[in-house]
């Protein structure tokens, strides 16, 4: 028999998902069977697999010890760099300024040092999170390409992650980018609409003025902040969030990003001048993160902006 008190970090998860994360030798088929047989209970009452766990709930599993083996926790994240640029932090979320050249998540070629690992290490060293004490792992709610910098949103608990994901999907977290493009823009500001189709195999997109098979509408708003030496500094608001939308859409109208070797004119270069520098939170309902409603967050120390001011984009 096993009894677990649900912590604030683990609350907000479904019963079945919490159990699956916690016990690696408990087959899912057996777990669902034992829930039906009332051998798995919450607060001494019958539960369902989809029931949401709350802070302080008591989860009891009247099962044999051999299937209640807890997962081995690894601390690979401790090998990540200590460098982390925090814009804002509270008990629920952490906003990190990701620099150009760093991955958000591990991949096959770079497993150890990435933003997720740095965030875990930071919270572990603070004593705010430990894999030994929580089934929830601090996670990012959004991601940015390796060669794009900007603000990524980390969630410290399951409920915060769920809310942030919902708000991103509902466009209640507005994202603003800075970019430097070739040429002088035709207008000081403009709302662009087009259609985008992704080629999964090539990891590239194509933008067209008219809808074609498999394409999705894109809406991109730009405002010119400055223009000099054949380069324009823009603030771009994403009103739809498609793969490579800013890069491909601006290239489509004849103003590709500096340094964009995929959609631009500088073949072989992959340090596109693009930075996700600002977030605005505009929530439509009351939730655990309502205290953030109406807040605006900006990244500082943006090398791309410094380079533009120094006339390095020519």
- Total strands: the figure is 15
Largest sheet: 11 strands, mixed
- Report how far apart the termini are: 69 Å
- Return residue spans where pLDDT drops below 50 for at least 5 consecutive residues: none
Q: Rg to the nearest angstrom?
A: 23 Å
Task: Report strand %.
Answer: 25-35%
Secondary structural class: alpha+beta
Broad shape: elongated
In words, what does this structure look like?
The protein is built from six helices and 15 strands. With 314 residues, the protein is an alpha+beta fold. Strand 7 and strand 8 form a beta hairpin. The model has no long low-confidence stretch (mean pLDDT 93). The strands form two sheets. Strands 5, 6, 7, 8, 9, 10, 11, 12, 13, 14 and 15 form an eleven-stranded mixed beta sheet that branches. The chain has a four-stranded antiparallel beta sheet with strand order 1-4-2-3. The chain is elongated, with a radius of gyration of 23 Å.
Secondary structure elements and their pairing?
Layout: E1 2-5, H1 15-22, H2 28-36, E2 40-42, E3 45-46, E4 58-61, E5 86-89, E6 93-98, H3 115-126, E7 139-140, E8 149-155, H4 158-169, E9 173-182, E10 189-199, E11 204-208, E12 216-228, E13 231-238, H5 245-252, E14 274-281, E15 296-298, H6 303-309
Parallel strand pairs: 8-14
Antiparallel strand pairs: 1-4, 2-3, 2-4, 5-6, 6-8, 7-8, 9-13, 9-14, 10-11, 10-12, 12-13, 14-15
